[in-house]
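Handout, tutorial session.
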Amino acid sequence: MISIALKRKKKIPFNELKIKSLDGKDKFIEIGGAPVDYFGEPALQTVMRDITDKKKTLKEINDTKNKYQKTAEELNFVLDNMRDFVYRQNIEGKFTFVSPAIEFITGFTPEEWHTNYKDVLTDNPINQMVIKYTEDALFRGIQRPPYEAEVYHKNGNRIVLEVSEIPLTENGKPNGLIGVARDITERKKYQKLEKSLYAISSAATTSNNSYELYKNIHEIIKELMPVKNFYIALHDETKNVMTFPYHVDEFDPSPVGELPFGRGLSEYVLRTKKSQLISKERDMELQEKGEVELSGEYTEIWLGIYLNFQRNYKGVFVVQDYEDPNAFGEKEMEILEFVSDQIVKVIDKKLAEEKLHQYNRELTEAKRMLEITNKNKDKFFSIIAHDLKNPFMSILGTSKLLSDSITDLTMKELAEISETMYSSSENLYKLLENLLSWSRLQLGNMQIVPKKLDAMPLINSVCKIFDLTAKNKNISLVCSVEKNVFAFADKDCFRTILRNLVSNALKFTKSGGIIKISAHADGNGNVKFSVADSGIGMDKETLGKLFDITEKITTRGTDGEAGTGLGLLLCKDLVEKNNGEIFVESEPDKGTTFYFTLPSFNGKGEEK
């Protein structure tokens, strides 16, 4: 190469050479030359320089370049394929970059998002905070913790995003932001489901009754989807009847009571034992096949969820929409089936609790009735053992006296003995009559036949029975009855009530006293009767015991007349059996007034 350069007088270009240095390390040199005239002789002037460090530096630069190129390619790959979309906004709020994931999440391409992003925010109130947080990042450089936003998908569905935004600055001033948005719609859905399951479970203990439980379930499901029309139907398999314990519907009235198991859509779910999503067209198709019958208004979409209780009843809960055929679909059916297991548990629990409460109430009532029966029995035997004995003893004594001494007695003495025997017999008859009536009532053998009763003649007929007794005690009986006052009650019951009250008044009224019997319409659909006397009256303690079977009242009449208290108990029972009420007012030495009401007659043989 040197000889060629000398002959041709051309420069030798610089070339790299690799050599070994004295210490054995590789060195790189760059060598070049040019022909020159050296004292008249051609010569070659060469230049060598060490480029080892230069080579190393160039290699590092090249490696770094390759590394960053690869990193940029990897970053672009990540941005193209990641499910979260990344975006950048400038200080004016315009999107200068949106990653391709935007289309996967929202259905909009990056280009469409640039122009439409302000219109995709939903009407959810949380978006008011979204706008504020973005403005804080853009114009104030404030970074917020991740927050939620709600946007519309291109298909109209709502999407919940979790957004993180990092403010950018230049020379210490805000210069835009970089954001990352993640689709958390499914996560929010399952959070709602978890919350709903917990709420349904809690409703079993917080609801006071089944209806309140069903209403709470309705409100909980409203949190999952828009549900206006909602009802629950239960099928008692033993009786084969349907009940609708909860029913909210825009058009159909709530079914009342037990209904025969029919061929409605609810029964169709129960027969097939699976949930059904039925459109209006499918409903018509099922009707044509005879599978179901129309039981109300046609709905655009009907969704029934099968409830598989572990008892002798099954159920279905239904949501339906009369206007929007897309209100419910497979997705909604999946959600409701998911929560249905919990609904079954809480309804089952509540029904079991109510059944137990019912049994307890029935047991308590049975116990109460048994106690009353035992008290009635004790009262019955007490009257037989004591109160019946006295009249008989009186009759037996006077009849014995009459038998032994009839030839020795004067006419006056015979009259007195006869009067005593009559009085004792009369009291005994009244007692036996009350006792028989009362026992028939307790045994449920007395027939109550309400009819139209004209108050005036009935009261007058009862008063005639006591004319002699009142005359003998020098007591005035006064009847004050409005004309055309008609009650609706059993005639025999009415006579027994009034007879006992008048008899009681005569017993406790002194000679020269007055007893007033009255009747009038009270304006509330009843006839109000009263028996008022000017007798000895009663204190509050005695008043409190009058209608208590366990209490024994020993007060004797003004002429020493004895009583059993049975008459007032009988009056109370007979008044209540005829749908009336009885009450009393009294003060010592100021007399007593007994009131009782009976339904008035409206001209058709019915109660008002």
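The second record follows below. Compare its token runs with those of the first.
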Amino acid sequence: MTKIHSAVLDMQSDLRKGKINRREFLRFATLLGVSATTAGIMAGCGNQPAAPSTPIPIKRGGTMRIGTALQEVSHPARLSWVESSNVLRQVAEYLTETGADGITRPWLLERWEANEDVTMWTLFLNKGIKFNNGQELTADDVIFNFEQWLDPTIESSMATLLSYLSPSNIERVDDYTIRLHLDAPQIGVPEHLYHYPALIMSREFEGDFIKQPLGTGPFILTEYTVGDQAVCQRRPDYWRMGVDGNPLPYLDELIYIELEVEERVEAMQGGGIDTLYMPSPRDWQVLKEVPNLAVYGVSTAQAFVIRMRVDRPPWDDVRVRQALMLCQDRQRILEGSYFGQGELAIDAHVAPIHPAYCEKPIPKYDPEKAKTLLDEAGYPDGLQVKLITKDDRSEAELARILRNLAAPAGFDIELNTIEPAKYWEQWTEVELGITHWTHRPLGTMVLALGYTSDKEGNPVNWNETRWVDEEFNTLLRQAERTLDIPKRREIMCQIEEIMQTRGPIGISYWRKIWTIIRAEFKNVKMHPTGYDLFYDVWKDT
């Protein structure tokens, strides 16, 4: 680092005064370009003497088999599911990485710098990194990717996150330096660059990753068959080194195997796979008792979102939406659908794990008040509605519990539980549904993806509820450029209040998730978004 942003020094003062906690300081100091090591020292974390180092018995070789879903893949910028991104991230990489600890660090980037008002970000690439076709990664490749993300014909969710950036404002400084001149201030740029569709492609990429699997990552894609199997084999000339002084990865091969959800537990018990994508709490209950399996858990901002399309009756009436929100007995829903493995939530898509979260009381179950609201909305005899959801996680159980809880209020809920693929084909179109949203490290990030409008005032691609609120949008943009954490929390308090009082969703709880894997695999990291980070995992056999 040649410079520390002045806001970091202000935050350090706030930390010493107790206005913010150490975690908040570390997250935002690193976002503003301070290395994690330096930020730790500034926060008082790095003053202890280092423990004596002991050799790590790294072993190389072996195969890992992962039970998952193998979906259609074309352009990585259009990725909508973590499952497919988990295969691609073994082959291609990101400019940054937000780790399991919530800290964002440089990856393909060496470092970055932001100006005082976070309207200009300078990105410095590591030198000498090569794609698996031998081409060196340069600024031209990075600029190509930004242009792809912002191209409306690509229809990438990155365009929503990068709404503050115009293609004409991307500057090539030199072969390894890119400068972004933002249309509006934005604190979250480094974390946005780890959104799972932000994989860095070669400028030679023509739009189909399966036909052209170019990347800088530790593995090479040798097979990808939708609904069957994907094979990633060790790349011998990967740019990152292991602790043994040789190139990563340690494993020779990753095999992703398509299995139905109910088949994965049996495959784990029988030795057919070594780990599985996003085990349910029911899977966890069974597999945690199986010998020779390791279980890693983490709290997240993942949620089953009860979402209502506000451009369709009866959900265009805020009283009806409020009535359904009041029908959540959140503790009963958590226990009945997820074995109590989570944290109760408010009806705003901001979680306690997010920086600047504003704590508010958990709303109480109140069917009588809900019934009064339905009466005021013109439904004195109750209301019949259809709830559509999928059946691969805990959505179906949540839907059944909600149907029973809502009956005393006058809701007659017809359940339509469908296969996951069919739900995802129509997830932005259903009038009333339950959509699983994965973890994002910043509350502002998920709010921008799911609840905002474009420059013409139209809901963005992932705004499944079609809810557009001018005050909400204005406050969100203020939060995105507010460096002072206590002030940003004040703004988030207002945002959360708006979502609770006139928003389009209900969230009963935030999910805990697990990695369950054979114990011989070492150095496994549990990421709250469910990302497969296997580049430095080894097999002890």
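Points raised in discussion: The first helix runs from residue 6 to 16.
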